[in-house]
Amino acid sequence: MDKKSILLLIFTIASFVFMVIFFKKGEGVADSLIQKELYSSLGGLFLGLFAVFLLAFISLLARKRVWKVLAIIALIIFSFATLQEMRYVLLLSDDKKLYEQGEFETFVGTPDEVKYDHKNEYLFELHFGDQSFNVHHLKISRSFYKEELEGKQLEIQYLPNSKLPVSLEHGDGFGVSFGTEAFGTEGRVPCSKAGTGGCSRV
Predict the structure, then answer these.
(1) pLDDT over 70 at 190, yes or no
(2) Cα torsion through 126, 143, 99, 109, rounded to 10
(3) Based on the domain organization, do 144 and 60 belong to the same domain?
(4) How far apart are CA 110 and CA 187, in angstroms?
(5) Which parts pass through the membrane (predicted)?
(6) Residue 139: pLDDT above 90?
(7) What pLDDT sits at residue 200?
(8) In whole angstroms, what is the distance from residue 76 CA to residue 66 CA?
(9) pLDDT at 201 (0 to 100)
(10) Cα 150 vs. chain centroid, distance in angstroms?
(11) Are residues 39 and 89 both part of a single domain?
């Protein structure tokens, strides 16, 4: 192998090591949503870099033209995905201080569509017209959503830059937040008192 190939191989291995480290760190965080999401997103970023460096390495070593072309196409796709993940990490970094200070924005509306994870056990996304929120980290079970939240106007508190939901509730007194299965509305900030974060309704 030439020097370029050896360098790419080193970057590939290093990216894999950092990917494992950050994913493990993310799994170990139980009391801070922003820290857990940052570690997990950094793990995703290094996963993308691992794929990019590996595909670049393969494209250099491939002898057949078709494999080189396929590797380059995949490289372009993973590069775009990695850039998106890098952008999300930067947005989360901007949100870290706001999270610690409890400065959230609030969105109120009734979902037009919901999506569940691949196992069909937990809520994955909520769609409100052209607005959507990824809520998989809140661990809202399908049964809880069906029994307590479906068809109701929901209030979502989220971080302004990354749009990461921190909590979800409705006016009848039930909701979920990171690290809890359910809560009553005592101590929560209603939309009418959302403060500096503002409030949007649909």
Answers:
(1) no
(2) 40
(3) no
(4) 23
(5) 6-26, 38-60, 66-83
(6) no
(7) 40
(8) 16
(9) 38
(10) 23
(11) yes
pLDDT of 32 over the 60 cut: yes
Whether residues 59 and 128 fall in one domain: no
Q: Which run of H or of E encompasses 28?
A: helix 3-28
Q: The domain containing residue 64 runs over which residues?
A: 3-100
Measured CA to CA, the distance from residue 145 to residue 167 in angstroms comes to 14
The CA R_g of the chain, rounded to the nearest whole Å, is 21
Residue 199 has pLDDT above 50, yes or no: no
Report DSSP state, residue 139: -
Backbone angles phi, psi at 124, to 5 degrees: -105, -50
Residues 127 and 187 in one domain: yes
Whether residues 18 and 82 fall in one domain: yes
Q: Are residues 168 and 94 in the same domain?
A: no
pLDDT, tens digit (0-9, with 9 covering 90-100), for 144-168: 888 888 888 999 999 999 999 998 8
The CA distances from residue 9 to 3, 66, 78, 167, in Å, are 10, 22, 17, 42
Are residues 90 and 34 part of one domain? Answer: yes
Domain stop point among 100, 130, 145: 100
Q: How far does CA 95 lie from the centroid of its chain?
A: 13
- Give me the torsion for CA of 190, 195, 196, 201, rounded to 10°: 40
User: Could you report the per-residue pLDDT of 93-133, keeping only the tens digit for each?
Assistant: 999 999 999 899 999 999 999 999 887 788 899 999 888 99
